[in-house]
Amino acid sequence: MRISYDWLRKYIDLDIPADELAEKIERSSVEVDSVIRPKAGLKKIVVGEIVDMKDHPDSDHLHICQVDVGEEEPVQIVCGAPNAAVGKKVITALSGARVADNMKIKKSKMRGVQSNGMLCALDEIGYPKDVVPKEWADGIYFLPEDAKLGDDVYKYIGMDDELIDLDVTPNRGDMLSMYGTVHDLSAIYNKPAKFDHTEIKETSGKKTADQMSNNVDKNIAWSYLNRVVNNVEVKPSPLWMQIRLWNAGIKPVNNVVDITNYIMLKLGQPMHAYDLDKLAGKELAVRYAKNGEKITTLEDDEVELDDKDLIVSDSEKPVALAGIIGGKDTSITEDTKNVVFECAIFDPIQVRKTARQHVIHTEASQRFERGVDPQGLDEALNTACEMSRELAGGEVTDDILEGSRKDVEPVSIEITTDRINHVLGTALTEETIIDIFNRLGFDVDSNNGKLVVTVPTRRGDIHIPADLIEEVARIYGYDNLPSTLPTTNMTTGGLNPKQKLMRNTRNILEGLGLTHAISYALTTDEEAKMFMMGDSYETRLSYPMSSDHTTLRMNLVTGLLDDIAYNQARKVNDVALYEQGRIFTKDSEDEVKPKEIEHISGAISGSLLDNSWNVKAKNVDFYQIKGIVESYLETIGFKGQISYKANKQYPEMHPGRTADIYVHDHYVGFVGQVHPKVAKQFKIKDTYVFDLNFDSLFELPKKEQNYEPVSKYPSITRDIALLIDEDINNDDIVAVINKRGGAYLTDVKLFDLYDGENVPEGKKSLAYTLTFQNKRDTLVDEDVNKAMAKVQRNLEREFDVEVR
C-alpha cells in the first residue's frame, strides 16, 4: 500500500524526512519497498492557459495554441488533444523540459509550424495510464481555475507528495489503511494522533428497510450491513479526493465510487456501492454461486462461476464476487439516483479461494484476506453515507439494514513484567511497559506485576502473550535490546542414528560416482503414479501454482529422469545422479494427510568413465548399477543378506532387465533399465535406475562393521565347474556353497558362464572360485578337500548338478 506522507501528516505531527520515516517503519512495523517521489526527474513543467487556438492548416486534428505561462509573450505550442480549448489551464512542458521516461521536450516544427513545448496528459508526466480518470484518458488534463500561471504544476495534482510503499505482511492487515498506519506511528514516535471521525449530520426520514431487503448466509458473511442514499448526483470527485486515489494507485471513477475507495484507504474497510434501481427484486443476497452462473465484472471480464464461489446476488443473478469485485450490471453510472452501500466482513478463507480460482486479486480482497476491524463497520458505512450527502447531494436514510452481525469482543491477555523482561533480556519497569501498551491503544489492568492487556479488535494479529512481547520489543526498539548470551544449560549437538545412516549413505553413493540431485516434491499427476513400489492414492493440490506441479510425488525416479533430460538436452550425455528425499502415499482416497516415506534413488545414463588412452568409455549396464546398489547395501551392513528376483511387473521398466531387491527376504526396492518407451517419453537415452525404501533399510537389522587385521596365513583356492539346468539361479548355488563350505570358506566368486557348443540343450555351465583361509593357523589341503567334497554332495542333492 502506498502511504501519502502529506495525508499522513494531517493525522500526526511528523517533521522528519520521508526516507528516515520509511526506515523507521521498516525496522518497527512492516517492510517498505521504496519511497516514491512522483515529480522526481521532471523539469520545467508549469501551469499554462490556452489564450488562443486555431486549426493547423495541414492537419485535420492538430491545433496551434498560444499558451500564457506567466511570461511577457505567450508560447506557441502545436497540440493534437481533442479536448484542447481556449480559457483552460493546462499542464505545459516548456522547451527543455523533462517529462515521463526522461523524455526531453525540444523546439520543433510540426508539419511546418513551430512548436515550443508540449501540452501534457497525466500519463505523459508520469502517472500510470490505469489511474488516469476516464474523462482525461484521451486528452490533456485541465488544472484548477485558481492555479497560478507559471507555477510548477506539481502541487496542483499531488506530485509534490512523497509516497511510502509498504509491503504489508499477512498478519498486519491493520497497516493497509491510513488510520492503521497512524496508530502504529503514534506509538512508535509517542505522538498523539488526530483522527477525524465522521458522523451523519442529516437524514431524510426514509428507511432503508422500506426500499430493499437482504438475505445473508451468516457462515460466509460474518457481518453484512446496507444503507441507502437517495437522489444522488453522480459526477467527478473533487480534485483532493482524486489526488488521494491516484497517488495510492486507484483510478478515480465518480464521486460515489470514489467515496468507497477513499474509505477503504482511510479506514481499511472495503465497501461497495450498487445502483438500487438496477437490483432485481430490490434484494441483495450473500450466497454460494450455482454451477454455470456468470458475471461480468467492473473490468469487463466475464467470469463463469461454480458452487465454491462466494457471491452477492439480487433476486435473479450475481451482482458481485463477494469481497473481491463488483458486477458491471449494477455499477454506479451518471444515471444513478439511488445508491445502496454495502459494508461487510466476508470469510477471509472463502474470499482468498475465490480470488485465486479466478485470478482476480483486488485491493478489497487483499484486505478481506488479511482481516478487517469487526468493530469498524458502522463508522465506515456512516462516513460513506455522510460524504455522499456532502459530495453528491444525497439523502441518507435513517436506518442501517443488518443482514448479519458478528459481535467480536476485544482479546484480553495475561502477562507479567518479569516474563517480558526475561524473554527480551531487558530490565524495563512496569510503568514503561504499561506506557508502551497505552501508546498502542491497548487497555491495561495492573496488579503487582501481573498485567491484563485488552487488545482492540483492529489488531487481529495479537492473541497470545508472545504477541505482546513482540509489541513491546518493536515499540521499545529492536536496536535498544541488549545483546546477552543464553544462560541455559548447553548440550552437545549430534546426529541421531537415522541421520548418521543418511550422512553415510550420501558419502557412499558419491564415492561410487553419483552426484547428489534435488528435485521438486511436486510433479504432474502422470509422473507421480510412475515407478511406484506399491499401491497408493495420489495427493493433489487444491490450488496448484502451475500444471507441472499439481501432485505430491510418489517416487523419486521421475524427478531424476527430468534432471537427466535437462542435462542431455544441453549435450551432457554422461549423467549419474542420486537423490534422497520423501515420497507421499495414501492408503485410501479419503485420507487427509499422506504418509511421508524416505527413499534413496539413483539414475545413470551414458558412461561412468571418460575416454582415455588406456580405458574406453562404456555405457552403463544392468550389472554395473546392480553392483553400485550391492556395494552400497553391503557397506551399510547387509553383506550376505541381499538377494535379487527378476520382475516383469513394472510397466515403466524393461521387463528383461529389472529385478526386485530383498534384504533379509524383505522387499526394499528395485533396480533395472527404464523401458525404452518411457525413455523416449522423457527424451533421454538408455538409462538405468534404482529405488530403495530408506525407512525400511534403517529398520532392518545390520551387521556391525568390525575391522580385523590381515591374516598372516595364506589362502587356498579351488575351482568347481557345474552343469546345471538353465532355470537355476546363481544366487541359489552360491547360497548352498556358503552354507556347506565350512568355517574356512571366505569367498565365492562366479568367473565363467557358458551355454554354447557341447552344452546340452536346457543346460548351462557355471564355474566358481572358492577361497579358503584359516586366520589362526596354516590351512592344509585335507581340510579344503573335505569342504569341497561336502559342497559337491549338497549341490548334487539340491540341484542334480553334474560336476565337470
At the third CATH level, what is the topology name of the largest domain?
BirA Bifunctional Protein, domain 2
Q: Numbering strands along the chain, what is their spatial order in the largest sheet?
A: 26-29-30-34-33-32-31
Low-confidence sequence ranges: none
- Using the CA coordinates, give the radius of gyration: 40 Å
Number of domains: 6
N-end to C-end Cα span: 89 Å
Q: State the name of the first-level CATH class of the largest domain.
A: Alpha Beta
Biggest sheet statistics = 7 strands, mixed
- The SS-based structural class is alpha+beta
Q: CATH superfamily name of the largest domain?
A: Bira Bifunctional Protein, Domain 2
| Quaternary structure type | single chain
Helix share, percent: 25-40%
Total E-strand runs:
38
Strand-residue proportion = 25-35%
Q: Can you tell me the CATH architecture of the largest domain?
A: 2-Layer Sandwich
- Coarse morphology: elongated
Task: Compute the average pLDDT.
Answer: 92
Architecture blueprint of SSEs:
Layout: E1 2-4, H1 5-8, H2 18-28, E2 31-36, E3 43-55, E4 63-68, E5 75-79, E6 89-98, E7 108-110, E8 113-115, E9 117-120, E10 163-167, H3 178-189, H4 208-211, E11 213-216, E12 221-230, H5 239-247, H6 255-267, E13 271-275, E14 283-288, E15 294-296, E16 302-304, E17 310-313, E18 318-321, E19 325-326, E20 339-346, H7 348-358, H8 363-370, H9 377-392, E21 395-396, E22 401-404, E23 411-416, H10 417-424, H11 430-439, E24 443-447, E25 450-455, H12 465-476, H13 497-511, E26 515-516, E27 522-523, H14 525-528, E28 551-552, H15 557-568, E29 575-585, E30 595-605, H16 622-638, E31 642-646, E32 653-663, E33 666-674, H17 676-682, E34 687-693, H18 694-699, E35 716-725, H19 730-740, E36 745-754, E37 763-772, H20 781-799, E38 802-803
Parallel strand pairs: 11-14, 26-29
Antiparallel strand pairs: 1-10, 2-10, 3-4, 3-6, 4-5, 6-9, 7-8, 12-20, 12-21, 12-22, 13-20, 14-17, 15-16, 17-18, 18-19, 23-25, 24-25, 27-28, 29-30, 30-34, 31-32, 32-33, 33-34, 35-37, 35-38, 36-37
Helix pairs in contact: 5-6, 6-9, 7-8, 13-16, 19-20
